[in-house]
Amino acid sequence: MSIWPSLVTICALVLYLVVTINVGRARIKYKIMPPEMTGDENFERVVRVQQNTLEQLVLFLPALWLFSQWVNPIWAGGLGGVWIIGRILFAWGYYQAAEKRTLGFAIGSLVSFTLLGGAIVGVILSLKS
């Protein structure tokens, strides 16, 4: 097993922890207490970053590990690193304005589809051997 997918997994989880903490900070800043999920537009964007990151992790993490197992762990780690950068760009952009999230979302989505597609091909090719 390679260390690179493990490091990317740790980075992805830390990223998620940071965006979750940001929701708590935004609740205090915009005075929106649980269970409320709406209010100030700036708060709602912070919540969407956290929720979208969680939604993307469900696809990304299994695809990362399957790609690592069936294709190449070093490539999985590299692609995973690009995904992390994409998610940071997504969050940074979305915190400013909803329309600024597109580049980060595109990068993350492309990486996730690449990991999943590679994993599918890797598994299918292993069935033939």
Automatic annotation (TrEMBL):
<keyword id="KW-0472">Membrane</keyword>
<dbReference type="InterPro" id="IPR050997">
    <property type="entry name" value="MAPEG"/>
</dbReference>
<dbReference type="GO" id="GO:0016020">
    <property type="term" value="C:membrane"/>
</dbReference>
<dbReference type="Pfam" id="PF01124">
    <property type="entry name" value="MAPEG"/>
</dbReference>
<dbReference type="InterPro" id="IPR001129">
    <property type="entry name" value="Membr-assoc_MAPEG"/>
</dbReference>
<dbReference type="GO" id="GO:0004602">
    <property type="term" value="F:glutathione peroxidase activity"/>
</dbReference>
<dbReference type="InterPro" id="IPR023352">
    <property type="entry name" value="MAPEG-like_dom_sf"/>
</dbReference>
<feature type="transmembrane region" description="Helical">
    <location>
        <begin position="102"/>
        <end position="127"/>
    </location>
</feature>
<keyword id="KW-0812">Transmembrane</keyword>
<dbReference type="GO" id="GO:0004364">
    <property type="term" value="F:glutathione transferase activity"/>
</dbReference>
<protein>
    <recommendedName>
        <fullName>MAPEG family protein</fullName>
    </recommendedName>
</protein>
<keyword id="KW-1133">Transmembrane helix</keyword>
<feature type="transmembrane region" description="Helical">
    <location>
        <begin position="74"/>
        <end position="95"/>
    </location>
</feature>
<dbReference type="GO" id="GO:0006691">
    <property type="term" value="P:leukotriene metabolic process"/>
</dbReference>
